[in-house]
Design a protein that fits this description.
The structure holds two protein chains of two kinds. By secondary structure, chain A is mainly α. Chain A has a single domain, classed as Amino acid/polyamine transporter I, CATH 1.20.1740. In chain A, about 75% of the residues lie in helices and about 0% in strands. Chain B is mostly helical. The chains are: A mainly alpha, B mainly alpha.
């Protein structure tokens, strides 16, 4: 092989690495969850806590999680409870890993359902069943009927639409696809998906972005619904009479922004710690995680932020944007309107939702691995038995989310309490364990081993002081606002009031607590087994 | 869109794009990056081989 061929191959491999690393972080959080949250918390005002959280929490804690995982892996543990037990020799340490099991398993329960919406929309575009004319409200009406926001149990099927109108049917397909892939451990194809399907998704999103930015004023009857005002809603620091200061003085915006950063970077999820435990001691974790985070941030801010909210504003107006159908719903109403205004819109609609479905599958496949690792190393189960048990638990949870579809209350409640609150708590636990128990110098040594970039020393201080203080302060203010203070706006229910006044919210939180209890029991059993193994080893070689 | 909106948009989109660009440059300029860099997607779990 001559030099030119060698260089070409090396170049191709490096491009492959870039595509795989950046593509691996892309998922539903970027194109669907981020715009939903940004709209809910005032558009441009949300970007300030979001940027602060990215720099002071997302990046540092991603490095923390990768380092803790590799540290635990080198000591023979792959699950968070086992790894925490290695870091902190205290009886309570493994139980701190409960949330690292609960978060990915419970997010899987509704993530697969949103995945099913993507598949359903892709298939409907393929069969030409997504054209509802030029009235934007028709797309909103379809989405509401499809996911059953009108009443509990309505998501089973739209009357007269057959299987194509059944969210439950598509959920079944997604569940089987995920289950078979996880059960058989077919992970090798995932890298290929990330390398080629994710760049295709980004390219498709860029084409959609060009169309969104050239929409102008599609409805002359509503001249205020133009693209510039749509961009303004997304990026203006103050919107709708609410000043920037008023937005920023709400602790929940800071909590939600941090939660979104954690959600989309998979930080505080319990997934990275398990996967990084399988790495070799000299593998890079510093540049790998930074590249993944930046690819993810680019898709979220530059694509998700420029497409979904401006499009929703232009077609459906400010009232819709301020009150979207659930955290994930905005894209499913706004984007079909854009495709309806595009040349070859049916093709692009199919392509976009199908690639988004693939992106979601690559994410959901990894969500059960933390719990699988616990069942294997803690209870001695084989992979297939572990997957079967988790398949049953997640099927029960997904059915709960689908059935209680009125106003998407069950999904939004679990998404807030698990997808924001629990992730936030888990990230706090991890950064404290890393900085104050393992020791920031020792942890930094682990992070720097094999690193392809030099991490500046000031990051140590961010990890040790800034991130924990930031997380605990916001948490304290939020807790006070939600549970102790008298609400300033009586129309805005606090989380406590929502809990007191809504049976589905109560059942959703009850369900979360049941899953927490289940994993605590499993961890207790695992600890017993680990102690027995350690006692045996001690007897053999005292 | 206000001036503040243009500033927030430029900083957010420009910042993320620049960071991604820098990371891509570092990966390309790093010898042996294909051996040492990893994503969650390319990490194989050993339990798959056991069953």
């Amino acid at each position: 092989m001559n030099d030119l061929d060698t260089n070409k191959e090396a170049w191709g491999s490096r491009v492959g690495v870039i595509l795989a690393v950046t593509g691996s972080a892309v998922g539903l959080g970027n194109f669907l969850r981020f715009p939903g949250l940004a709209a809910q918390y005032g558009g441009g005002a949300f970007m300030i806590p979001y940027a602060v959280a990215f720099l002071l929490l997302g990046l540092p804690i991603a490095w923390v999680e990768w380092s803790m995982g590799r540290y635990g892996g080198a000591r023979g543990f792959n699950s968070s409870p086992g790894i925490y037990r290695q870091i902190w020799k205290h009886p309570i340490a493994p139980y701190l890993g409960t949330l690292a099991m609960v978060v990915p398993v419970m997010i899987y329960m509704y993530y697969v359902y949103v995945e099913a919406w993507c598949l359903a929309y892709a298939i409907r575009y393929l069969f030409g069943e997504m054209s509802f004319g030029t009235d934007p409200a028709a797309y909103e009406a379809f989405f509401n009927k499809f996911v059953g926001t009108g009443g509990d149990g309505n998501a089973i099927s739209i009357q007269g639409e057959g299987l194509l109108g059944s969210a439950m049917f598509f959920l079944g397909i997604c569940f089987v696809v995920n289950f078979v892939l996880i059960y058989r451990g077919l992970t090798k194809g995932i890298e290929w998906f990330c390398k080629w399907a994710m760049p295709a998704l980004i390219l498709c999103a860029l084409i959609v972005l060009v169309r969104v930015l050239t929409l102008g004023t599609p409805n002359p009857a509503h001249p205020e619904q133009n693209i510039l005002n749509g961009l303004g809603y997304m990026w203006n620091p103050s919107n709708g009479g609410v000043t920037l200061w008023q937005s920023l003085s709400n602790p929940e915006i800071w909590l939600a922004a941090a939660g979104q950063i954690f959600f989309s970077l998979s930080v505080g999820f319990g997934i990275i710690i398990t996967y990084s435990s399988y790495l070799r001691a000299d593998d890079d974790i510093a540049l790998s995680s930074l590249t993944a985070a930046s690819g993810n941030g680019f898709c979220e801010v530059a694509l998700g932020g420029l497409i979904t909210i401006p499009a929703a504003f232009v077609f459906l107006g400010v009232a819709f944007v301020q009150n979207p159908p659930g955290t994930f719903g905005m894209g499913f109403v706004a984007l079909p309107n854009v495709f309806n205004q595009m040349i070859a819109g049916r093709f692009f609609g199919f392509l976009f939702f199908f690639l988004l479905f693939l992106a979601a599958v690559t994410s959901s496949l990894s969500m059960l691995q933390p719990a699988i690792a616990l069942l294997e190393e803690g209870l001695g189960l084989k992979r297939k038995a572990s997957v079967t048990l988790l398949g049953f638990i997640t099927a029960v949870g997904a059915t709960f989310v689908v059935y209680f579809s009125q106003g998407l209350t069950a999904m939004d409640t679990i998404d807030f309490w698990v997808g924001t609150f629990c992730i936030y708590v888990l990230a706090t636990i991890q950064v404290i364990l890393f900085a104050w128990v393992l020791g920031v110098d020792r942890g930094f040594e682990e992070l720097s081993r094999g690193a392809e970039i030099r991490i500046p020393p000031f990051v140590k201080y961010i990890i040790k002081y800034v991130s924990p203080i930031y997380l605990l302060t916001i948490f304290g203010f939020w807790g006070y606002q939600q549970f102790l203070a008298t609400p300033e706006d009586p129309t805005q229910l606090t989380r406590l009031q929502q809990l007191q006044g809504n049976v589905v919210v109560q059942m959703s939180i009850g369900f979360i607590l049941m899953v927490v209890a289940l994993f605590m029991l499993l961890i207790a059993q695992s600890v017993k087994r680990w102690r027995a193994i350690e006692a045996q080893e001690y007897e053999v070689s005292p | 869109m206000t001036v503040g909106g243009w500033i927030v948009m430029t900083l957010a989109v420009g910042g993320m794009t620049s960071l991604l660009g820098w990371c891509i440059y570092k990966v390309i300029a790093t010898p042996g990056s294909t051996e040492h860099l990893h994503s969650q997607a390319d990490i194989e779990t050993p339990d798959v081989e056991e069953d």
